[in-house]
Design a protein that fits this description.
- There is one protein chain.
- By secondary structure, this protein is an alpha/beta fold.
- It has one domain: Rossmann fold.
- Helices cover 37% and strands 21% of the residues.
- The protein has six helices and eight strands.
- An eight-stranded mixed β-sheet has the order 1-2-4-3-5-6-7-8, sandwiched between helices.
- β5, α4 and β6 form a beta-alpha-beta unit.
- It is globular and about 40 Å long.
- The protein starts with a strand and ends with a helix.
């Protein structure tokens, strides 16, 4: 269903993105932000799922500035490599957001644009909601959101956390909710990565509820 396209950020950096067109009508657009594993099989599958729901969907390869075409699975060594690239990207987060903005601009002709992301992508989604011109945002288990929690989103925003996620203690989640009363913070009986059906932490009940909430958010704020 999808295809690789090349985007260019405002600073001239060219990078890849996985883009999926809906089979029939287009209700609006969604930018999908990767985990630390790159735009891998799971993120491509998620992008295709959004297209099946009538959204023009695109997943920018945000590690291309440091390692083009990077994608890995979920072995310990692959997780370590993904985290190393995440650290490089976090040191130049403004450049990451240039690439997110290029993806947003690329699909904006289809109407209102939402953003969603998982793991590291949950943090980038939060920053996109606060610093860019999105119309709705859904952040999944972003470890590090609390580092910029003094910022405020420019659009309706959801957050999803698992109560068994060791990387995001519940005290941190409570702090986020207290600092951002306009953001709907949902907690599930699940671990980090509960949305990914290619990992052992996959929790279908939590994933389905979070997906329904995200779909409702986008229907309410993006549908034309």
């Amino acid at each position: 269903m999808g295809q690789d396209v090349t985007l260019t950020a405002s600073d001239g950096h060219s990078f890849s993105a996985y883009k999926c067109e809906p089979p029939a009508r287009v209700l609006g657009s969604v930018v999908i932000i990767q985990e630390v594993f790159g735009v891998n099989e799971h993120i491509r599958d998620v992008t295709e799922r959004f297209a099946e729901l009538d959204w023009l969907a695109i997943a920018p390869a945000l590690y291309d500035r440091w390692e083009p075409a990077f994608e890995v699975g979920y072995t310990p060594d692959e997780i370590t490599k993904g985290r190393q690239l995440k650290d490089l990207a976090n040191n130049e987060i403004d450049k990451v957001l240039l690439d997110v903005e290029a993806a947003r601009s690329h699909v904006a002709e289809a109407g209102q644009v939402g953003i969603t992301g998982y793991c590291w992508g949950g943090v980038v989604t939060w920053l996109g909601a606060c610093r860019l011109d999105f119309n709705a945002a859904s952040c999944y288990y972003g470890a590090g959101i609390s580092n910029t929690i003094e910022e405020s989103p420019n659009c309706p925003t959801l957050m999803h956390f698992g109560d068994k996620d060791a990387s995001i203690p519940m005290e941190e989640v409570k702090h986020i909710a207290a600092k951002q009363p306009s953001v709907r913070v949902h907690v599930y009986k699940a671990d980090h990565g509960f949305h990914c059906d290619m990992r052992g932490q996959f929790n279908p009940t939590a994933a389905n509820i979070a997906a329904m909430r995200t779909a409702r958010l986008f229907d309410d704020n993006l549908r034309r």
